[in-house]
Amino acid sequence: MSHTTKVSHRRPVRLASGAAPTAPPRARRRPTSQQWAAWAFLTPVTLYLVLFYAYPLYRNIDLSLRNYTVRSFVQGDAPFTGLANYRNVLHDPTFAPALLHTVVFTSVCLVFQYAIGLALAVFFNQRFRLSATLRALFLVPWLLPLIVSASTWSWMLNSDSGVVNSALHAVGIGPVNWLTAPGWSLASVIIANIWIGVPFNLVVLHSGLQSIPASLYEAAALDGANAWQRFRRITFPLLRPVSAITLLLGLVYTLKVFDIIWIMTKGGPADSSTTFATWSYQLGFGNMLPAFGPGAAVGNLLVVAALVFGLVYIRVQRKQGLS
Amino acid sequence: MHSSVRGLRLTAATVTVLAVAGTATACSSGSGSTGNKAADSGTYTIWDPYPQFDKSSAWAKLLDACGTKAGVKIKRTAFDTSDLSNKALLAAQQDNSADVLIVDNPVVSTLAEAGVLTTTEDNKLDTSKVDANLLAAGQSDGKTYGTPIGANTLGLYYNKTVLKQAGVDIATVKDWKSLTAALAKVKKAGKKGITFSAIGTEEGTFQFLPWYWGSGAQLTALDSDQAVTALTLWKDWLKNGYAPNSVLNNTQTTSWQEFASGDYAFSENGTWQLANAAKAGFDYGVIPVPAADGASASAPTGGEFVTIPVQGKTDRYATSQKIVTCLTSTDNLLNTDTTLSYVAPTSEVQGKQVAANAELKPWVDAVKAAKGRTSDDLGTKYPKISEQLWKAVQSALSGAQSPKDALAAAQSAVK
User: Fold this and answer.
1) In what order do the strands lie in the sheet with B73-78?
2) Domain containing A186: what range?
């Protein structure tokens, strides 16, 4: 990484100094047209960022700081109430369970997705027949529209007619109310989400593995390292940068998971699978009388959480770059 | 060179800002394509919650015909019913409402509160022929905000074959006690009891209300003793295996699919399933949902209202009124409500419906006895009460809380 950046830094300098002596009068105009070009190239991105990132974010913060009723939403005269929406959200009886579920959901999903993804990536890294085909098959959960996979999961986990319960029945275990028992609903959505997240981890980690030179493994094998030692001492440390970005992206994706939970359990029963994402939707759109303010406040808490982890990632990466 | 660069930067920044502003305005006018802004004065927009009807359907043709009669072109957009209230609010915020909005009846009071809808005083709609109990769902503070296009409600479908096998005579099912006894017999005979929808959405509350009202409870006191008996009735059905655990996740459609499998004795479902019932392949019948002590319980009214949203240009109301009057004229109501499997909102058309199809008789009676969810002047309080009620039902049925605790928590959350 650091090597390539150095090269790219050097190149424009050399070009400029090479061009300067041959055509001194033109040297003055060239940066000008370059500047124009630079701005021209920058404009679409800036426009895009402002329209699709900055403005919605501003609107969401604005929503969360005002007391919106349906009437003031339409008339546009909602009074500014400062942090009242945030206070209400913090004191809501749903807050503590939603926070707990979000943390449990995110961390359990991340750990299992990463562990299973890494195991499969290492497995598929050994070339064998059908390796590519099997790997392609593992991508299916990722390619399916979420509404399809979530609906399929909710049919499979149906208490009375689901295939999972009939399989359990066949081996002599009583039925489990996967989606309708408060003790199981969170576990069910976690299982479904792990299944959906594994392919992403598999793909990224697999491409990371391929960038590790085979010569290292050969050298280790010559030194008498066994398979576990090779994984522990070579694969895992060299995979660290890829792992970091996989986990960060996984974290952001998992924090905001909404569709699966909403389709499978609607955050219920009795809030037992409510996370911040579903709670935010429930507040803003899940009722005939939308509470836009508190809904936006919960959404902003999620944005802040994702941002914090993003900053942590950048910090860690910079430290790694320095060392 | 430095200064020229700075100057350039400034110009570029200005250009950027102007471009942003330009795009923003372009966007805001562009987004009006579904509303009336983009449409010329000869085109009127209609939003409805019937995405199942495409361009070639009788409904779409009726809209076009009514437009032609009023001398304008119709631009119709169909939304999923759960999306429509938010879409309508957003459109109103941008002064971009449809000319005619057809919307689920409990949403009317919310939209009225938001100032999105015109009253019948303003738009001169004639609602004198409409049944009072149906119109009540579209009234708040003594004002009426539209007219119902049709109504539906809930009843108990039963499977004659299953009941025969279990040795249950449907005539004996008159109150909760006899219904529960019938369910016990059905279970003993190796069949399944009853399906309904107790999902954590408005649908769940809609399905619970006949039992809730049938117990004598009022929506203003969720924690009353009567309310507890109603929730305990459902809870015990689940506990005894008379109702499947999946009711907690069932929509009314999935609940119907369970009934259509032919294993269940009863299903609480709506008028709109009549057409499917004929296709189910077994003999079925319908009784009103019984109240605790024997009479028929009030079921909630479903069905949509035709409303005329507030416009910047008030001269559009006259034409909108012509279109709505055409849509809700006697002949057209009969056709529309037959397509939708709804009961008509006026006695005149109801009579014609029963004459054409005697099976509709119990449904017409049920609709006449039904009650609007936002009636009793609940208006915009209803959505909050309803949310707490479906949460309480979910808590109790899933075993998270006892019916009494769940309803007490619900009442304190409504405040």
Assistant:
1) B73-78, B43-48, B100-104, B304-307, B147-148
2) 80-322
